[in-house]
Amino acid sequence: MIENIDYIICPICGKKMQRIEGPHLKAHGITLQEFHEKYPSSKVCCEKNLLNRSLCQKGKKLSEECKKKMSIARKGKTTSLRGKKITEEHRQKIIAVRKGKTYEEIFGKEKADKIKEKMSLVTRDESFKKKISIANLGRKKTPEAREKMRNSSRGIPCKSKNKSYEEIYGVDRAEEIKLNLRNKRLDKLKKYGHRISFNEKSCEVFNEFDALNKTVGQYATHLGEHAIIGYSLDYINFDLKLIIEVDERHHFDKNGNLREKDIIRQKSIEKVLPDFTFLRFKSWEMSEILKINIKDGKIYAI
After folding, report:
1. Number of domains in the chain
2. 242: which of 1, 33, 237, 252 fits an S-S bond (Cβ 3.0–4.6 Å)?
3. Do 18 and 46 meet the contact criterion of CB atoms below 8 Å apart?
4. Are residues 175 and 243 both part of a single domain?
5. SS3 153
6. CATH number for position 266
7. Is 153 contained in some domain?
8. Residues 296 and 236 reside in one and the same domain
9. How many CB atoms sit inside 10 A of residue 112's CB?
10. Which of 277, 202, 209 is nearest to 241 (CA)?
11. Residue 190 sits in the same domain as residue 243
């Protein structure tokens, strides 16, 4: 019989046993937490008993009811490992076991989906992004770290190559990513004092249109282009509920059809402003803008 493998010794009474449990500690008038605080180096279970318990539980799945009960029982309690650092040997064992495996292979599909969802919510949280940004401020990667990153991805095919955001993340998440990218681009232009390129001739026509119809619209040379869902509008009139876009030649394909991204852009804007009339004019036909028929502040015919 070997100590700590076949049995352990109670540091209070010196009794040999396989496991120090609640009833035994109660007889000494002490709780498990107090026992750990008083005897931090003492074990509460021998290796043999721990192995037997592990083998008994292997392959068993807890019911939802059991999980709920355990969750309620543990609520507000901290684990014995909290705040403790694992050894380098332990860390390397974990890495070796999980290396090259997906979350699905390690945890199973159901738990993997929950982990991914939780990670997605955390990484999208603005406070989390701010913390990471502050933590990495001014920090430079060492040549060894860069080489390690290169080697880790060398020879591994990129899963997202030649795929759209929709194919990688799904429609809803893709729209959110695109909106963030558009807003960041506009913010960066404002931050560095850059002006979004615009058609000066179209602004002259917009000015003439406003004077002709005794109205006031918003465009590049008057109040600046109005931004909505990350897009800048050539002309918008909130009184008339009118949006005008002037398309240069690069907005059309070889067959003279409006490009798909411009169609998507228009649909997105119309979805946000459904009460507005959205009109498009080719840059070489801008004079048609002045023919828009407005009566009593409303658009009747074009």
Report:
1. 3
2. 237
3. yes
4. no
5. helix
6. 3.40.960
7. no
8. yes
9. 15
10. 277
11. no
Name the token pair of 299. 């658009």
| Residue 229 near residue 272 (C-beta atoms within 8 A) | yes
* Helix (H) / strand (E) containing 219: strand 218-219
Q: Taking Cα atoms as reference points, which of 36, 70, 51, 60 lies closest to residue 6?
A: 51
Q: Mind listing the pLDDT tens digit for each residue in 207-256?
A: 999 999 999 999 999 988 898 988 999 999 999 999 999 999 999 998 99
Give the domain extent around 236: 200-301
Please give the structure tokens belonging to residue 52: 């037997």
Residue type, position 171, single letter: V
Cα 65 to Cα 56, 62, 277: the distances in Å are 20, 8, 56
> Alpha helix locations (H) across 75-137?
88-98, 103-107, 109-124, 126-135
Helix (H, G, I), strand (E, B) or coil at 265: helix
Tell me how far apart the alpha carbons of residues 285 and 290 are, in angstroms, rounded to a whole number: 10
pTM over 0.85: no
